[in-house]
Amino acid sequence: METLGYLMDGFAVALTPYNLMFALAGAFLGTLIGCLPGLGPANGVAILIPLAFTLGLPPETAMILLTSVYAGAMYGGRISSILLNIPGDEPAMMTCLDGYPMAQKGRAADALAISAVASFAGGLIGTIGLILLAPILARFALTFGPAEYFALFILAFATLGGITGKNPMKTVIAATIGIMISTVGIDISTGTQRYTFGVLELYEGIDFILAIVGLFAISELLFFLESRIKSGHKKVNVGKVTLTLKELVSTVPTQLRGGVLGFIAGVLPGAGASLGSFISYTLEKQVIGKKGSFGEGDIRGVVAPEAGNNGAASGALVPMLTLGVPGSGTTAVLLAMLISLNITPGPLMFTQNADIVWGVIAALLIGNVLLLLLNIPMIGVFVRLLSIPPAYLLPIVTMVAFVGIYSISHSTFDLYFMVAFGVAGYFMRKLEIPLVPIILGLLLGPEMEKNLGHALILSDGDWSTLWASPLALGLWLVAALGLVLPLIVGPILRRRMRSAIEEGPVSD
Amino acid sequence: MSGLSDRILGLGLLVLAVAYGWVAQQWPEPFGGSEGVGPETFPTILSVVLVIGSLYLMLKPDPEALWPWGKTAIELLVAVVVLVIYTSLMEPLGFVISTTLAVGTLSWRMGAPSGKAFITGLLSAVVVFVLFNYGLSLSLPAGPLEIN
């Protein structure tokens, strides 16, 4: 019941008109970011971070804004999946399978409406799961010592490539590069200058926000330029909603199953929203069996993945909020925001910054309601925005990224750095070196070094302390599994996901 | 040779890792004597990990990536040059002029008709400038357009 009290306090924070306004703005922007192909959720949230700073928002408002954007992006991804058969973001891939056929049968409006409801159900289930699980995990995490934390960071990196990741060695390399970048600057504990080469701008280290924005936004621009998608998409006629109440009710079990499965996939390290929607869809197909018409526009084929990916989105916040260890790119970016607000994420945040944690959780609940309200009547607006050609959109997005970074420090030095990161990001994406571990390395590097130092000081320099406790040893084992498992399971899962998509309608 | 890009990357990272590790060994011992963990401990571990990773890349590279050659490569180069010039002109020319040029050029190179592209650039520049300078009171460089 303690939790309920905190949640009420959270609502008190989130329901102030000022915060509510930002939640609404975030929900709208998020849907927009989600539905525009080429502007992924991690990218979108990253660009908004410097803007949230320059607006001088108080920490809880800034977090509410970004969390609403995050939730909104998960809603938005489905729009282009259904209408154009192009997923707006990766987790929305599975929604194409039945969403697009529904649209072709003239039921686009129904598909959009039911998927909004499913997103809401998934988001709600996920958030309830978050409310129940997070305090327990936070309390458990209080027993972690520095050695356990060090092992936990290793675990986070090892599983980050995800179960579907291709080359685990590239994940390791990416994470190492990220941590290396984080060691630039003056060492906190001894004051030694590391890798600054006497350049004054480097003394404070490299700001991870400009690295994130550069890696995502600039490399995206270059990728788009390479693929040369010139024209915007034709305006699609959505039509009227003909969904009956009976149909809506018939999908309730699917929504529940999808939401719960998604949430579990979200909490587990290395799974994430894409796997959440994939599992929900596959399970639904098996439960319904031959009675359904999956792949030809079955309404449950739209509901399951949408409930799944929104459940997973809330689930992914659990490790980020309680342990300070994000499991996905977008939650990593949210973590970046917390760190820049001088809030140490992790179990202590639940006691020291209770208003922020619970404000964010309450905002997630409110955000889901707002998103549902926003997404049914205003769908036309988003559909119209889809027809903006990327040739106009992407340069403007890039410019906004420049403005954001410039407004942090008013120095063009940072902008050159950002462009350099963007070019590096382009080459790394080309070579299939994942960007998310780099970012996580940048964010967690200092914490990792600090915990390593503490652990070794406590043990008088005995390195075996790092795996001395059963808990730490367990974390190391899971981390090892996380690196080895994708080698075995990865190819199978990837093949299944691909064949599931190929079985679906062929786009023309 | 297959996987040439990965091998080159591996070689580059190997050089980086060795240099990074070597630099770490040069730091003076911190004031107050050395303890179990010094400023060089963590970087040394990282450099070892990266050495192993880069060797692996060179020995077992992934299949070759598809690189854009010819016209596309030039387009990409142009885009990067535009961004660098944009950065260098932002303060001397002011935000509005430099942004019009940068957004206009980029969107023209991405396939928009040149007239429309530069109008988009100008409009977005003015909107963002007004929004930031007057709405959010954050000063973007005005350059020669500054009104006193």
Characteristic terms for this protein:
heterodimer, A: 508 residues, mainly alpha, two-stranded antiparallel ribbon, disordered C terminus, B: 148 residues, 5 helices, flat
In terms of topology, how is this protein built?
The complex is a heterodimer of chains A (508) and B (148).
Chain A: H1 2-14, H2 17-35, H3 41-54, H4 59-84, H5 95-141, H6 146-160, H7 168-182, E1 185-186, E2 193-194, H8 208-227, H9 245-250, H10 252-267, H11 272-288, H12 299-315, H13 317-323, H14 329-340, H15 349-352, H16 354-375, H17 379-386, H18 390-409, H19 412-430, H20 436-458, H21 470-503
Antiparallel strand pairs in A: 1-2
Helix pairs in contact in A: 1-16, 2-4, 2-16, 3-4, 3-8, 3-14, 3-18, 4-5, 4-12, 4-14, 4-16, 5-10, 5-12, 5-13, 5-16, 6-20, 6-21, 7-20, 8-18, 8-19, 10-11, 10-12, 11-12, 14-20, 18-19
Chain B: H1 4-26, H2 41-59, H3 71-93, H4 95-109, H5 114-135
Helix pairs in contact in B: 1-2, 3-4, 4-5
Largest sheet report of chain B: none
Residue runs with pLDDT of under 50 for 5 or more positions of chain A: 504-508
Share of helix among residues of chain A?
over 70%
Mean pLDDT of chain B: 84
Structural overview:
The complex is a heterodimer of chains A (508) and B (148). With 508 residues, chain A is an all-alpha fold. Chain A has one domain. Helix content of chain A is 74%, strand content 1%. Chain A has 21 helices and two strands. In chain A, strands 1-2 form a two-stranded antiparallel ribbon. In chain A, helix 6 (146-160) runs antiparallel to helix 20 (436-458) and helix 14 (329-340) crosses helix 20. The radius of gyration of chain A is 22 Å and the shape is globular. Mean pLDDT of chain A is 83; it is low at 504-508. Chain B is mainly α and 148 residues long. Chain B has two domains: 4-59; 71-145, no CATH class. Chain B has helices at residues 4-26, 41-59, 71-93, 95-109, 114-135. The longest helix of chain B has 23 residues, at 4-26. Chains A and B meet through helix 7, helix 8, helix 18, helix 19 and helix 20 of A and helix 1, helix 2, helix 3, helix 4 and helix 5 of B.
